[in-house]
Structure formats: C-alpha cells, structure tokens
Amino acid sequence: MSPLVIPGLDQQPGSTTNLDATLHVGTVSEAVEVSAEAVTLNTQSAEVASTVATTLQGTASAEKPLFTARLRKYFPETLVWKPEVITDDRGRAHLDFPMADHITAWSMSVIASTEAGQVGVAQKELRTFQPFFIEHNPRNVLTEGDQISLPVVLRNYSDKQQTLLAELKSEAWFSMLSPPQQNVTVAAGGDANAVFTFKAIARANPGKQRVTARNNETGDAVEREVQVHPDGQEISFTTGRLLAGENQTLEIQVPSTAIPGSIDTELRIYPNLAAHVLDAMNGIARRPAGCSEQTTSIGYVSLQALQLLKKAGVDAATKDSRAQIYAGALKSVQDAYALLPSFQQAHGAFSYWGSTSADVVLTAYVLRFIAGASDFVEVDPQVLSKARSYLISQQTPSGAWTRYDWSTKSQIDDPMKTAYVARALATSSKSLDAKERDTVDASIGKALSYLEDRISEWRDPYLVGNYAIAAISVKRQEHIANARELLARLAHNEGSTTYWNLEANTTPFYGWGTAGRLETTAFAVEALAKLEALADDSALAEQVNRGLQYLLTHKGRYACWYSTQATQNVIEAMIAGHACWKRRDRRRQRICPGEWHETGGHETASGDRGRRPESD
What is the reported pTM? Predict the structure, then answer.
C-alpha cells in the first residue's frame, strides 16, 4: 500500500470534517516479505494527535481522543421578536429563527388578536441545557496594558466527577501571563474555576477570546468578543462638506499626538438633504430615551421623515424599498404617541417624567408633535385640546409666559419661552372649531404684541427665529422685516458657513454649548427660509445656504446633532431650507452649462454660486 497525505486539515470545535480516501490494493501476485519482528503501522488522529498502534500480531490499547465540543458564540439578549405574525385560518403560524447558545431559561410571550378584536395571551418557558458547560463572561471593553485574571466557571451537572483540560486560546491582542492550559477537576453536581491571567497588548475591534474545557467524554467551548482600546483619551470629531463644482475633496486633520493605529474613520455620503433625515431617524432611535422630551423627539424625527416621503408620493403601498422606510417611521410615530398620554396631567400639561411638575415649553413641544402626527395616526382630540387650554391658562395678562427666577424667588416674564409657545400655538392649530380658533388666535396675538413692544430688547436669535416663524404662520407682517434685520445682524460668519449663537445661558429645553448653538442656528435658518418664501430674495437664500452648511458640517458621530432637541430642530430647518432651494430652482431657467438666469430679474450667476446643497 502507498502512503496518503492530505495537508491543511484544521479541525475546529463545533465543526465536522468529512475525509474521503481510497485504498489502493497491490496485485494478488505481489510478494510480501514478513520478518520475525512485529511491523507497526502508525495512524494519527487529525484532531488531537492520538496514536493507534496496530501490529500484524494484534491491536494494542488506544488512547481515546479528546471530546470535540460545539463552539458556542451566539449570545443575543432577545432571542426572537416578531411584531406582526399572520396565522392561517386555524390560528397556526410557523416561525424559523436561530437558537442562541445561552444555557438559560427563555420566557416566551405571545399576544394575539382576531379580526373581531378578541385578544389572547400566552406565556411559556423554554429551557436550554447541557450536563457540562462553561460560563465565560469577560469584560466587554479593555484598554491596552490592562492585566486581567479571568475566572472561567466549569459547571458539571453529570453524576460523575470530571477532570478536564481547560484552555484559553492564544490571540494576537493579548499575551499570557499564566499557563494557557490547566487541568481542573469538577465534582459531580458541582463547579470549579479555571483562572487565566493575561495582558492586553494590542488594539482589537473586536478581538475574539475562546475558552475550551474537555476530556475524552464531554466538553464545551465558548467564544466571546472583546474591544481593546488604545491607552489614551478618545477624541472624536466630525466634519462635512457640500460636494459640488470644484469642491470634490474632504480633508481630515489628524492630530500629531494621535496614537498610531488608533484612528478609525467612517465616511458617509448623502445624495441629498432627505437622506440626512432618514439617517437621523435611525440614529436618534439608538439614543437613550425615557423622558417625554426624548420620546417626543424620536417620534418627531420619524414624523418629519413621513412628511418628506408623503411629498415624494411614498406610502406603505409603494412597490420599492421606501415602503419599508415608511412603515418603520410610521411605527415610530405610533409608538411615541402611545407613550405620551402617560406623561399628560389632568389639567392638560405634560411633564418630563409623568410624576414631576408640569412644563409649559415641553407641553408646547408635545402639542406640535401630536398635531403633526394626526395626519398619519389616529389621535385623541382631547389630548390636543387639553394641552392648548393649559398653555393659554398659563399666559399672563401681559401676553407672556413666565419662568421662575431664583434670584428674586418669583415668576418673571420670559420672552424666549413666550416666542416658542406662540410659535407652537400658531403652527399646530388647524381644524379648530370657531370658538377654540378665536381663543387661540387671541392668545397668539397677545404674545406677539408682548414681544413686539420689546423689540428693542431682542438680543437672542433663538427668540427672533421663533417669533418670525409664529408671525409668518399667522400672517402678521408688522415686524417681520425687523426679524429679518435682527437675524442678519446677529449672524456669525465662519468660512463658507454661518451660525447664530445662543445668547442666554440655556435654551428652554436646557440646551447649552454646541447643542444650544445648533438649536439656535436651526431656528434662524428655518425662519430665513420662510422669509425667503415671502420675498424671493437671493440674499436670504444665500444666508439659508450658509446656515445649512454649518448645520451639515456639525453633525455628530451617531448621525444626530448632539441632543434630541437639537436634532429635531436641525432636521426641521433642513426641510425648510430644502424647500427654499426647490422654490428657487423652479424660478430658474437654465440657459447654458454653468450659467443660470433669474427669471425674476434679480441676478445672473455663473459657476456654482447659488447651487442648492444636494450632496454632502
């Protein structure tokens, strides 16, 4: 017989390898010389190198190979979630899903309803078990240089004592400080620890860490993922640019003090402003949520996505992938609205946590959202009516809404809050009966008069932007020109962008710093876009463009703008700015490549000036 060699076999725990081989037998007349000494033929197991000794005189005892354990590495927190399952006419449905590798008890809850509205609820327990298993739960995140003594628990539920070989598989991201293999004895029905000491020596994103424990009868293997960060301070920043004309590059400045190998870069290319909205809808949904402002903002961004999709003629019946986006946004709006009534108090106000004190500005914000959501989901009109009534009841005879001043320990008029509430009432008061319409209009009129009487005191573009939006909504022209002039005077130019500073310490939603500036800039841009719709003014359009560029280039790493409130405001400004540029496109008539003629007689521009920000 001739030898057969098959190289490259790699037998891993949890997998099976089939090996096909052909035995070539010599001819029947072939002479075979047999000596007196026993000839030993050696074969070797591909897995554990155990040797089986076979002789012409008989078979010697063989060392039994180690157990090959199935590798467990799928550990989801939720095993399966199916919000919409349609049964057959007998009430039966079949689900296929991958089973997790946890050794645990799963709780399965099912809620079903019939077409007639009957509801059924069932709950069952599903247990997964094996007589011997490992508990391997390393820290999820390490830093280079960390030295860890990792305990691995070996649990033996069999009826006999087990002595096993426990092993931590070597990986490039750590170095062993203790033996990688240990013999551990576990009593029947008991448990024991194997402790491995190692040092994280290299960045891993992520790194794998596999532990096995086995003998020739039983075993287990578990693999987890570990993030290893460089030993330094994490600094993240974002930058962006509108790619148009000759501006086709994006430069990223990496500090000279950056740790080699520690730099991660993510590039996102947006074909238009609508893509920003859809991306932000997914990004904000991943942020922590719990209070009514966060719940409202998450739903509000999805509402704005629905509004854009509706304008594009998209709904749930659309025959492309946008229908799935529409369905996801609609569900987010429904979920937000379902939660918000629990935050509303008996007199109509909303609070941040339900049991806390009422908040006027928060109530105005929720009112705006629910009023907009009523175009897509069924809402209780009483929720809206009670919220409006509460806001109007809190207005002082002067027309202002107040805030508590800690220095005087009393309520004082708050122009910023007044401008925001007036804007909320003005933009969320459609479909009112005549009596409620008169009440709301009177409240808005008093608020705007209060603000206009103090126009010489206006110093904050947050106030000016909200005032302008409210005044435009109710067609109050008296001081719109003043608002435009103030926004122009309060603007700060920075390269090819423009921003507006928050002059107060915080916004009514407690925004400050970068988030406060983004909220304020968003209000200014939205107001300017609405002003441009009235004036058809190229200078206003240029301010809108510069403001949009500032907002787009200050997007956070999670596709949001630092806070939920800032994100919602920025998206609203982007939608208004997008509408502004679409209006200007309709007014243009293209004459030749690179040249636009303003049919309204305002200007003729060459090159890329006045191009709407379609790419980022």
Answer: 0.67
